[in-house]
């Protein structure tokens, strides 16, 4: 049974841009430079890792979450949390979807960045579908009485492994070294 952690969402800022990924370091690999650029431009940015990467071969979940906090500092995130869902067993089910919907409602991101839906790791494409469905459901008033409905204005996808032609590219040239520094935090 999954028991979501208690996040301090009441004190979290409303976000202009939020990235959701399956594991700590996924965001740094796929859209870290773009997130840093947005923060440098004055947008309020944040990240949500769905798992702590427990099944990874390097480090412990606690180490990975500490590394993620350091990467968040480098990328100038205003918010970063980890839902600690089960690594290598991430699935689109009602408890996970409702948990993520609640986070989206409370953080109110205008733009949501999700992993591209084609991926070699099952958690990555599960995170994509889970994020998309939670974002849609977060806009339905009757889904939950605890938070006001909110649906992101735009959902975009970041790809790492899929060979897709992008619909847009963000120039991160001035931010590349700091983006790399965020990766080396792991």
Describe this structure in words.
The protein has a five-stranded parallel β-sheet, sandwiched between helices. With 186 residues, it is of the alpha/beta class. The mean pLDDT is 93. 35% of the residues lie in helices and 16% in strands. It is built from six helices and five strands. Helix 4 crosses helix 5 (122-137).
Write the layout of secondary structure elements.
Elements: E1 17-21, H1 26-30, H2 32-40, E2 45-51, H3 61-74, E3 79-85, H4 94-107, E4 111-115, H5 122-137, E5 154-158, H6 176-183
Parallel strand pairs: 1-2, 1-4, 2-3, 4-5
Helix pairs in contact: 3-6, 4-5
Entry summary:
Helix content is 35%, strand content 16%. With 186 residues, the protein is of the alpha/beta class.
The gross shape turns out to be globular
- Overall residue-averaged pLDDT value: 93
SS class: alpha/beta
What fraction of residues sit in β-strands?
Answer: 15-25%
Radius of gyration: 15 Å
C-alpha end-to-end distance: 29 Å
**What is the H/E string?**
EHHEHEHEHEH
What proportion of the residues is helical, as a percent range?
25-40%
Low-confidence stretches are none
For the biggest sheet, the summary is: 5 strands, parallel
Strand tally is 5
Quickly count the helices: 6
* Major sheet: arrangement of strands: 3-2-1-4-5
């Amino acid at each position: 049974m999954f028991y979501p952690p208690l996040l301090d969402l009441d004190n979290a800022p409303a976000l202009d841009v939020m990235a959701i990924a399956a594991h700590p370091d996924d965001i740094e690999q796929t859209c870290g430079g773009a997130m840093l650029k947005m923060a440098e431009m004055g947008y309020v940015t944040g990240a949500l890792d769905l798992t702590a990467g427990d099944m990874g071969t390097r480090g412990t979940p606690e180490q990975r979450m500490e590394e993620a906090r350091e990467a968040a500092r480098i990328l100038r995130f205003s918010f970063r949390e980890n839902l600690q869902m089960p690594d290598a067993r991430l699935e689109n089910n009602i408890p996970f979807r409702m948990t993520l919907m609640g986070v989206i409602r409370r953080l109110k991101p205008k733009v949501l960045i999700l992993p591209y839906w084609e991926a070699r790791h099952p958690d990555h494409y599960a995170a994509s579908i889970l994020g998309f469905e939670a974002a849609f459901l977060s806009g339905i008033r009757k889904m939950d009485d605890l938070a006001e409905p909110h649906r992101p204005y735009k959902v975009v996808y970041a790809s790492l492994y899929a060979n897709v032609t992008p619909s847009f590219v963000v120039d991160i040239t001035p931010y590349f070294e700091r983006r790399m520094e965020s990766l080396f935090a792991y």
